[in-house]
Each structure stands twice: as structure tokens, then as C-alpha cells.
């Protein structure tokens, strides 16, 4: 079985896909960061995640652990 990889996947693509899959409310439940809780948007989330390595890792880990249906 192939291990999921982030090769070639942009942070914007990761956040966009997770948001489409879970919605902001469920993302905030899974990863407790303010950019998913208070007035969330792709743009504000990217700005925060690019400056915050620990939060970015949590988002990347959730992306790798998520089974997308489409």
C-alpha cells in the first residue's frame, strides 16, 4: 500500500480540499486554531499557516489521514 504524500500539493490546495470535505466548523473541531474558528477564510488560514509551522503540520497531518471520497 502506498503511503500518502504531500509531494506537489500546495498548502492552498490542502486547505481548500479539507474545507470542502469537513467545512470550517468540523475543521475547527479537529484542529483548534483561531483561523478556523473566527471568521474563517482560505486567505486568512493560509496567512496564519504559512507563519505557524506547528499548525501547518497539524493541517498537513489531517490531510494525509483523511480519506476523501472524491
UniProtKB/TrEMBL annotation:
It comes from Rugamonas apoptosis. One of its GO terms (molecular function) is DNA binding. The lineage of its organism: Bacteria, Pseudomonadati, Pseudomonadota, Betaproteobacteria, Burkholderiales. It holds the Pfam family VF530. This is DUF2132 domain-containing protein. InterPro entries: DNA-binding_VF530-like, SAP_dom_sf.
Amino acid at each position: 500500500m502506498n503511503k500518502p504524500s504531500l509531494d506537489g500539493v500546495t498548502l492552498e490546495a490542502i486547505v481548500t480540499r479539507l474545507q470542502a470535505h469537513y467545512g470550517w466548523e468540523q475543521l475547527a473541531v479537529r484542529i483548534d486554531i483561531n483561523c478556523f474558528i473566527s471568521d474563517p477564510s482560505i486567505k486568512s488560514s493560509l496567512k496564519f499557516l504559512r507563519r505557524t509551522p506547528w499548525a501547518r503540520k497539524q493541517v498537513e497531518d489531517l490531510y494525509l489521514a483523511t480519506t476523501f471520497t472524491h
